[in-house]
Amino acid sequence: MAPTNLLQGKTAIITGGSTGIGRAITLEYLRQGCNVVVNHLGLPQDATHLSSLIAEAASLKSASPSTTGSLDHLPGDVTDPATGTALVARAVSKFGPRLDICVSNAGVCEFAEFLTVEQDLFTKTVRTNLDGTFYVVQAAARQMALSQTPPGGAIIGLSSISALVGGGKQVHYTPTKAGVLSIMQSTAVALGKYGIRCNALLPGTVRTQLSVEDLKDDAKREYLEKRIPLGRIGLPTDLAGPAVFLACDELSGFVTGAQLLVDGGLFVNLQ
């Protein structure tokens, strides 16, 4: 069993927190004593995911009421700058007075042939993955730097192994994840004077709702599993521990501007 209470009393916002990697990070943060406000689009299909998340959070709270964090949620589209601002305000008003952690996780990934990529898909991918990260991180940083005493906090951007390698059906996607990495590197420089640490998590191939269709291809899945030194496709929970590490001052207090690959060794075996 992993240690607990590493984020006791902290407050976090997590975009795209009701499914996939965001959900896994949310639940682990709660287990570590962190109060969390998750963002979701508020679409009809989100209701089922959110209901399940709320039920699991309640189960954690029931098992360890004095150490488990509390959960709240707020709908909104991260491509709208107002969403990040509202999410920060909700976290501070609900659990304040500080915002300690921001995890910019919301993203889209749809495979497509480069020669036939439609403008709408390109625009949606860039606006969600890149613009959305910028606006949410900026809103969190304003709170962490200018509206709390002392200033400080931890910001984590979900990039991807795709920020470092090419993908024939990801030409519209890989630049956005390289951009998320770049945002984390540049904000690490811009915000260091406020005691704010900014780092990127780079998942490899992870079994989420974004990859489920792609992984139905048995030949591709088997090929990937052979290329991954640890011999398996990643799970959303594989990102939860690294996200705790980067959020915890006691564990990573001198880590900023870093990129942490969580890929089972895939990147070093791409040859």
Automatic annotation (TrEMBL):
Keywords: NADP, Oxidoreductase, Rhamnose metabolism. Pfam families: adh_short_C2 (PF13561). GO terms for molecular function: oxidoreductase activity, acting on the CH-OH group of donors, NAD or NADP as acceptor; quinone binding. GO terms for biological process: fatty acid biosynthetic process; rhamnose catabolic process. It comes from the Eukaryota. Gene3D superfamilies: NAD(P)-binding Rossmann-like Domain. CDD domains: SDR_c. Belongs to the short-chain dehydrogenases/reductases (SDR) family. This is Short-chain dehydrogenase. It comes from Pseudomassariella vexata. The lineage of its organism: Eukaryota, Fungi, Dikarya, Ascomycota, Pezizomycotina.
